[in-house]
Amino acid sequence: MDLRRGIPRTCDYGAATIVLTSGTVRNPRRRFYRCGANSGQNHVFKWLDEAHDEEFVVVGNKLATIEQDLTDIKADLDDMI
């Protein structure tokens, strides 16, 4: 499964993701996203901390685009006056 950047909200099969906590020795109490319907090779699995770090980048990029769009709109309006 090819996960997009950021927080996974659904798996490829349309099931919503859930947040669980790892109980392994290697990753004790580390939280992760998983498909709410099933687990396995073709279903979502992503560490929560990594997903959140990616989400900050995604949201930051969207914000920068919106800010540029507003600057462009303002310039267009100034040209109309």
Task: Briefly note the structural class of the backbone.
Answer: alpha+beta
Question: Mean pLDDT, rounded to whole units?
Answer: 90
Q: How many β-strand stretches?
A: 3
The termini sit apart by 52 Å
- The helix/strand series, from N terminus to C terminus, equals EEEH
- The proportion of strand residues reads 15-25%
Please work out how many helical segments DSSP would assign.
1
Low-confidence segments: none
What overall geometry do the principal axes of the alpha carbons give? elongated
Q: Report Rg.
A: 19 Å
Strand order of the largest sheet: 1-2-3
Helix content: 40-55%
Task: Provide structural commentary.
- One of its GO terms (molecular function) is zinc ion binding.
- Residues 11-51 form the GRF-type domain.
- This is GRF-type domain-containing protein.
- Keywords: Metal-binding, Zinc, Zinc-finger.
- This protein is of the alpha+beta class.
- Helices cover 41% and strands 16% of the residues.
- The chain is built from 1 helix and 3 strands, in the order E-E-E-H.
- It is elongated.
List the helices and strands and how they pair.
Elements lengths: L16 E5 L9 E5 L9 E3 H33 L1
Antiparallel strand pairs: 1-2, 2-3
